[in-house]
Amino acid sequence: MAEFKKIFREKTGNEHSDSLHTDFVKKAKKYQLIKQDLKRCKQHEYLKEFQWNTTPSSLDKSVASCLRLFADTKVYARSF
């Protein structure tokens, strides 16, 4: 963590702390923080089923099976 804080200070000109979001001061020619508007959305709004049968594959069956697991939206839905 000490190394991260050192690099953060070098890049931004600010100390990294718990009150960073209120104490951060923009410095010329340094990195700055950007605020993000994090909106929650429902799983079905961003996870879409992939139709595996529409695209022929020459992958080995074990590789294709692994890819299907990674792309299985039900696996990700269970994590919410």
Question: Which structural traits does this protein have?
Answer:
80 residues; mainly alpha
Describe the structure.
- This protein has 80 residues and is mainly alpha-helical.
- It has two domains: 1-37, no CATH class; 43-78, no CATH class.
- Helix content is 44%, strand content 0%.
- It contains five helices and no strands.
- It has helices at 2-12, 20-23, 43-46, 61-70, 73-78.
- It is elongated and about 55 Å long.
- The two termini are 30 Å apart.
- The relative contact order is 0.10.
Briefly, what is this?
The protein has 80 residues and is mainly α. It contains five helices and no strands. The chain folds into two domains: 37 residues, no CATH class; 36 residues, no CATH class.
Itemize the secondary structure elements and their pairings.
Blueprint: H1 2-12, H2 20-23, H3 43-46, H4 61-70, H5 73-78
Which class best fits the helix and strand makeup?
Answer: mainly alpha
N to C succession of SSEs = HHHHH
Radius of gyration: 22 Å
Helix count equals 5
What ranges have pLDDT less than 50 throughout 5 or more consecutive residues? none
Count of distinct strands: 0
Q: Into which percent range does the helicity of residues fall?
A: 40-55%
